[in-house]
Please model this.
Amino acid sequence: MKLGVNSVLFKGVDAKTAFKAIKAAGYDGVELSAIQGMCEHLVLDAWETQAPLIKAAAKEAGVELLSMEVASLDEARLTKAFAAAQYLGIPVVNVGPGGKSDVEEDIQASIATLTARAELAAKYGVMLCCKAHVNSAIYSTPTTLRAMEEIKLDSFGVDMDPSHIHRAGEKPEDALASVVSRMGHVHIRDCKGPGPSPGAPADQACGRGEINLYGYFKALVDAGYEGPVCLEVIGPEQTLQQAQAIASESYGYMNACLKMLGAR
Model:
């Protein structure tokens, strides 16, 4: 199990600086943010020019490129993302499901779109992962299970984010067992309260909120999960020092949990 940080936490600095800070905090790797309008450490419209620079920056910092987050389901953007991921050796591209919760037409449309995008991902040797997301068509374990049942492609996987499952009123440490067979990625953060927001960036640091993250890591270890686990902290832009503090605190918590479980 490899620990990483989504570079969106370091959106106030360039990719090279972010990678070095993530390495200094102890992490194995990086989830590269390519989220238009939020954080584009890789600008997909210019990926052919930027990708060699990203590869060199990762090598210099000594971090592995574990995954990429695009969020959008737009076919043109994901085609560029899959091509960039193939070049960079990134195995997983993460998206959200879109749509609105508890609207049958929306979950049908989401599953159809995810199926088509996973078929596209397969052409590039990449896995498309989608997570249950607050207020979206897929937002809970039952809706995730429906997507798993209907999308039978090996190039489709689940990005299991405990903070969204927590905000759906479930216990992530219990929910994990039913979806782990298709999990290709984990977004991790803590959460205070029932949402819809996960809280201020500092309160998303692992160990500061209400989620039983030790129990979640135990469930991961017990299930034999070996994919990436990437800290994803969203919200207002942080200074480099603030982002470094959140990353470091979260690494200490996660690393301690995994050591106690004999998994690190």
The chain has one domain: 2-260. The domain at 2-260 is CATH 3.20.20.150 (TIM Barrel). The chain has a mean pLDDT of 97. The CA atoms of residues 15 and 41 lie 6 Å apart.
